[in-house]
Fold each of these.
Amino acid sequence: MTVIYKQFKHIITEQVEREQAFLAEYKVGQHTIENPYIKLNPYHIAPLTAVVLFATTEEVAGRVTVKGKEAAGDMSFEFPKAKEHVVQVLGLYENYANQVVVELEDGSTTTLTIQTEAASEKVKAPTLINTTPEYLGNNVIFVSPTSPAMTAAYDYKGDVRWYITLNLAFDLKRAKNGRLLVGTNRLVAPPYHTTGLYEIGMIGKIYKEYRLPSGYHHDHFEMEDGNLLILTQDLPTGTVEDMCVLVDRKTGMILKTWDYKKVLPQDMAGSGSQDAHDWFHNNAVWYDKKTNSLTLSGRHQDAVINLDYETGDLNWIIGDPEGWPQEMVDKYFFTPVGDGAFDWQYEQHACVVLPDGDIMMFDNGHFRAKKKENYVPADQNFSRGVRFHINTEDMTIEQVWQYGKERGKDFFSTYISNVEYYGEGHYMVHSGGIGSLDGETCNRPPVSIKEGTGEVVYKSVTLEIKDDEIMYEMQLPANYYRAEKLSLYCQEDVLTFGKGECLGSLGVTEQMMTEVPAEEVKEVPDTYNVRVGEEEDRIILKATFEKGQLVMLILEGEENTYRYFVPTTKRPFLAMCVGTFQESDERAVEFPVSKEGLVGNLTVKLLIDDTQYDTGMSIQCS
């Protein structure tokens, strides 16, 4: 009998230890601009970054430049006046002897050589890149993966200039403080619900983790006051992806909740991917200050909805009205007008409210109908970015722009994807979930196709259009949830030393209150491949069970015993938006238990079918 037990430090703890180590190294010598201290990948998750430390006798400002492989590839960043200089170096090339020039305003200068290693094979090279350095300027295109790949940023030539080795999921957005907000790599429930959000500096330092009791998925939005709208759910209720919460930026605590079950029917007007568990599938949130409202995309009702921010009441719905109750159609739906072409959107993503009130989104077009007999086959279908003008007084809607329909099945993405608005006539359209199975266009998310089924080819196409001209196009051999155009350097993203914070709460994991009779305690058979991981705030059971086995995790103490039902029958997820958390073995089970509410020295036991097993280990909880 072998039960593997391992303790895991939170990445915030690991990073502060590494930070203390390199700062101690720096203090050993006298480091000037001629002899600076250099630490490549200082926080161990961003291999194409470095920090350069040195001191000057006078306060002086300066500039750092990572030299490009050609002049257009130079990336520069100014750093402020100081005597103790902490210079972030971003935009290094992988597998390259990078030349980095540090210049001070007093004329002092030095050129450093920073050799990087080759990137992981999960950092995909573009199969097509078409733009100019003049157009992209100092920006790079970030993509976050849903198939086996890494979150990465590409320059005008398609060279990767930044990537993260953590399995980070869903949208990646820059906050007002210059840092990135992105989903964590810690799973709370399959197939991709994670603990919450990381706030991470471009150098790879995680400053905060915002944790939620039922986890995070898909999208988030920074409010004017810094508080965060985060998409979540209440897992014990049995449904997912149907709630939004407002989270206090300083404490991580939930301030306000919107539950869509209060305003929408759950058993009608579904898309072809809907089931009772994932009836709405909220994949985007946008706050509009002018109307004080939330706009939300519900993939599994083919609907973009708008809620009053204060009351949560339903204001309107954009979508095909077929299948909805007539009283809702009369009150909340729009009537198409105008002389131009018009198509409703289906299983859409990434709703955006534009300055003039227009609504822009990515229309995936999956099935492109409400009834099965009218479903459009993938090889005859299309996806697109689309802009609608809505009039909420007379409840009319007009399609005023689209791009993608003309590219047909080659641009068709059953899932994920996004649009961005840069100004009138200037947009990004990212079709991130293109795929084929044995040469045939996929009519389901490619990441949901099991190994051995056939040859799956992944593809994403990211393009930018200005005044109807394509100014940028990148194609990658992977699926990516969203794309964002950002600069690597941001003046507000200042590297500060010290330990980051875990904010918010994972809540108390729901217990099974019934004690199940079992035979005497035995040793755990090796066939179950049981592993127990202890994180700073969670206990995680990993094991291999046959479908439908009855499994209970028991934490037994002198005064308290905690029992948890461990699901062994996986749901057939119809909307596998992120496949990077999937186990190759369908029998693999991962079950986390929050330490909140646990007290005492707890012996770890397992009930499997009608037998109770002792793992031989105990965990101390305060």
Amino acid sequence: MPAPAAAAAPAPDARTQNARTPDARIPDVRIPAPSNNGPVVNGNGPANGSPPAPAVQPARIPDARSEDDNLFLQLRDAARQNDAVRVNTLAPRLANYPLASHVDYYRLRLRLREAAPEEVREALRRHEGSAAADQLRAEWLLELGRRRDFAAFEQEAGTLTQNGSLQIRCYGLLARASRGEAVAQEARALLGNPPAYGEACASLIAQLAQNGQFSQADLLWQLRLAGEMNATGPARRAAVLLGVPEARAAQAVDVPAVAMARGIGATRAEREIYLVALGRMARTSLKLAMVALEKNSDRLSNEERAIGWANLALAASIAQDQEAGDYWRRANGVPLTNEQMQWKTRIALRNGDWKLVRATIEAMPAGLKADPAWVYWLGRAHKAEGQSDAARALFERIAAQSTFYGQLALDELGRMVTAPPPVAPVTVAELAEASANPSLQRALRFYGLRLRAEGNREWNWGLRGMSERQLLAAAELARRNELLDRMVETSLRTRTELDYAQRFPAPHLDILRPTAQGLGLDKAWVYGLIRQESRFIQDARSGVGASGLMQVMPSTGKWVAAKIGLDNFVHDMLNDIRTNITLGANYMNMVLQNFDGNEILATAAYNAGPGRARAWRGRLEAPMEGAIFVETIPFSETRSYVRNVLANATNYAAVFDGRPQSIRTRVTTVSPRGGNGSILP
């Protein structure tokens, strides 16, 4: 039976176990409005003793929808249905609506292909500095790039050619390449994610191939990446540029057995397609792929054979096959993709080969090598090889981060996780300033319309350039509006003023504490999981149907309800806070018991299902260090999930207990098998 599915992101609420709650910091009272009577001191009124300014409330989510709100929702739906006539009928009626910038966005995005440039520029000028203008500009740039109107594109793009979306950056390089500039080196660094290429990056690759800046080796690399990432379209386009029928590349990705049956081919490009098919086949039948590679080995060059073994090694590593290390040795010397480099390192970790761990991490590109995970593991490799000073320097680099690897680095340095002292309370004046922020006001209106994605975009846009005090005030405004996910995400942006009441809140403690106590569960672990699952969004619902704070799947909820004697369970009960916590906590307790009290395995089981967690454990031949087990979980989502939950739980424990904590109490050794039979489906 499947476990509850993980939500897209983590999140907390507002009341922690420590004595200082957000309610204690700022009474929910009237806020003095800005006045000309002098500066406000500590939010208590004018410094010169003048009478207080007229009082106002903090910005709030509207309690009810207005007629204009309903018109806006109709306009949005019409835009999503490409009904330009309906949009143009409704738009004039919303000229003074608080979301007028989005009205213009919906109106113009339907006709960007025929809109006059000055009309678009006028809308951008009218709403300059808003999230809607930013979104409109990004979509217009893509249209200008598609038209190859590079003069207008570069006039409007500005810094977006360096820090915009992947496709805008590709169009930026295409514009320069069209003028004859040498951009191949920049393109190689940029083009690493074929599923996200779109027309922009595909055209860039074609242009660079046409003008000779991309060699056959560059195109073969793109074909290899596309195959690894299951990107059929980019594989087709690379094949055409290499002079191979695109259908053969599509077969290699989608139906590798058919492509392999054609044979390895005569040209280098045809053999690369065969190697792509080999790698795809290895994902479903490693044995068949290995037999095929060995059978055709003498018809491949040394480099091609090594690429073939690297493709098999990646599949074997993800499958946690015992032969993966041998496959990587056979691939020695061939350039590896980022995914291959990471899995080669993970297999070296599982095999205890610290020399190889160090070598593979040091060979990574700078950006990948700087990832906290690889900083930590490089430190461990140096430590294993007796280079204590080098190891300590690496651990210090990430120890300030309250994340999984930051906490492990603290442990290596002999220090523990502690909750920081309380920050100065947000003042009434600071909260008033946050309330007056136009983007935050628009975000609150979107939340009132139950348009969370649009609200999040506006909210995040409004945080740009904020000081740490302004961020804390915006987080408090989110709390006042019960937007606990925004409170957490906003507070996480601070670097020196760390408010753990905002970052690690504990809502519904009156429900959760007795439930956890009754089951003997660590409430810090439960809150750590809720924070990851739903960010405390009470009505959160995942794409696969998981619901509520603890993202319980309907089938799981029904099964747990029957086990604990909760009568008359129906699906809608999952949205009730008390029921959701009761079912989720009981399920956590069941998986914890099933995995002998090991939080790593239980957390993985909650996310990926107990069957998968049992399988991963079953592949162990000896006890494994917990951190290595986590790093080598095959599913990237589950790997990140387990890291985040255990780091969250350690932070919550520091807050709840009021004393230093070590993540090592949770990241314990994982044994090959448990003594208990499974109580789970």
Amino acid sequence: MEESLNQPNNLIIDVSKWIGPKTVDIAVIGAGARGLSILERIVAFARAKKFAPEINVNITIFDPNPFGAGCHLSDQAEHLLVNTIASQITIFADHTVQGSGLILHGPSFYEWLCDHTSSLHDPNSYYPRKLLGEYLEWSFRYLCSLAPDTVNIKPVSHRVISATPSLKTWYIKTETGETSYQNYVFLTTGHEHEILRKDAANSRLFSAYPLHISTSGIESHETVALEGMGLSTCDVLSMLTIGRGGKFSRNQQGVLCYQPSQTEPKIIAFSRSGLPLSARASNQKEVREQYKANFLTRQAINELKNKYQKLDFAKQILPLLLNDMEFVYSKTYIQKYHSYIAANIFANAYLTVPANERKSLIFDYIPPQHQFYWDNLANPIPLTALESKAQFKQWLNNYLYTDVVNANEGNVLNPLKAACDILRDVRDNLRYAIDFAGLTESSHRWLMTAFIPTMNRLAVGPPKIRIEEMLALQKAGILKMDLGPQPEWEFDKTSNLFVIQGKFETLEAEVLIRSRIDIPSPQQSSNLLLQQMIADGFARPFFNNQFHPNGLDISQDFNMISKENHVYKNIWALGTPIEGPKFYTFILPRPFVNSTALLDADRVVQSLVNQINAESAPIQNQQPEKVYDSK
């Protein structure tokens, strides 16, 4: 005994050797692009051995759709296009993402296309959504193959209908009644595509999605009205024309023409603005190339935040944004109509002269009628065009033809398209000003009702081919889209017809499709999981004072907040469910530009790793007890 006491190190029993690996259960609810980004980050952190050595991770991924695809299903029609060029889509983080710095190498959508299809591909082209779905599904399988032995991935092809906190876990239940306890949860459910409830028993009123439901059962002798002239309308038009055997081709002059199949219905398209979204210009920028703000900078926004408790977008943010747009427009115009040298001389002067001298500087190079005016972009329809149906139709045709010409010139060489592309390039700085109720309540309302519709029309329109198709369908007598601004519609129960009151005439239709993607508020969502969490008080809608822009309330670390203001540190929400506290979440990750989607995923998974390691630290670091041999 005395010998043992004198040599205690020989008698210490390392208790940690008796403790096996600790298993942590993680749920990812929704396996579209956002869910994939979470999986990608967990696998990257695990391969880099950032989890404590004794940690094994079980990841259960819930989604009724094919894993990875989300709403980009691979069984869609070939003629439905992605609204982003191939080289600007990826699932994999890169060294520009200003987070953990952990990289898991994988192909962009364009690179995957080059490897997986035999034809030649253009990095600046728009490809079928079914191919994007295949890429996303492949990415899921690729990530599973890269997961180390310490990570077990279990796909579950069912919807989650409830999530209830229990001590340090969440009790998860699926639509089949299957239950599990999860230590950590990521909510990435994305868009919900539900059939619109009918306003009247006999009406044929549909939401655009699912397309196979909204566009089926429409006879060629019928008329269908489309409320909206944006991206969803492009999909519906494609289904009702190309999807029914119609053909687009170019004549000898290069103008797109339409050859009907005689199975198309008559189509009426209308919108509040009276205009389709503007065509996306041909991309002339490198994958890594984005305009860096000279006026709407992080520093400028920080100075405003330090001065004001909350910002007024129209008074404080928009002027800075318009300075950047005016700068790019003017420099591009001078480069086009004068010279590169003149454009550079102008740029140096514009960035250094006092603000009140910029206009006179522009006058030296650009005639007044060709200068940049935001009001002309926000409200392009002149009063003369609204004097008669014929004048509006002629003006609209000229407007759309000019838009196509501008788009063909590209987003670097065309002054107008170059300026509008700024709205996309500086979006992260807009987020920095807007996110987490950064605006006053009244300004936030103005942003949602006035600015965002204009921004969408100018910057997130369809590929230019879709505008050409609209013009060709109009010329073929299939499509009518000259109802003018602020049309209204109602359902006539007597005739069972939809009555559309335009600026110049009244029209009727058997079917009405609300061809826009509405994001229902969480309180009105058909998502049973969101309904349950809000009803039970485990989640709450986001409000900026009395204004509810949309989305669930989250902390700045993306953690869910309960009705009673409790922040759940072990559940995070990303993407569409938090479109409200976060600005413009419905995007696909883009490579080499510090994509916010990739950065957000890195942040929350870093938080996950920190929490798991902190909880395992007492076991990992504690000194084992001294146990003496009784001999």
